[in-house]
Amino acid sequence: MLLLVYVIRNEALLLLTHLTREAEEIQKIVVFEGAFEKIFSIIKEEGGSDGDVVVQDCLELLNNLLRSSSSNQILLRETMGFEPIISVLKLRGITYKFTQQKTVNLLSALETINMLIMGGADTDPGKDSNKLANRTVLVQKKLLDYLLMLGVESQWAPVAVRCMTFKCIGDLVDGHPKNRDILATKVLGEDRQVEPALNSILRIILQTSSIQEFVAADYVFKTFCEKNREGQTMLASTLIPQPHPTTRDPLEDDVNSMLLRGICSGETDGDLETCCRAASILSHVLKDNIQCKEKALKIVLESHVPSMGTPETLFQRIVRYLAVASSMKSKDKSSTMGKSYIQQIILKLLVTWTVDCPAAVQCFLDSRHHLTYLLELVANPAATVCTRGLASILLGECVIYNKSNENGKDAFAVVDAVSQKMGLTTYFSKFEEMQSSFIFSSSEAPRQGDKPLTRTATPSEAEIEDADAAKAMNKGNEDHPILVSLFDPSFTGLVKSLEGKIRERIVDVYSRPKSEVAVVPADLEQRSGENEKAYINRLKAFIEKQCSEIQNLLARNAALAEDLASSGRNEESQGSVQRSSTVMEKVQMESIRRELQETSQRLETVKAEKAKLESEASDYKNMAAKLESDLKGLSDAYNSLEQANYHLEKEVKSLKGGEDPMEFPDIEAIKEEVRKEAQKESEDELNDLLVCLGQEESKVEKLTAKLIELGVDVDKLLEDIGDESEAQGESDEDDDDH
Question: I want to staple 70 with a disulfide (CB 3.0 to 4.6 A). Which of 59, 116, 120, 244 is the partner?
Answer without folding.
Answer: 120
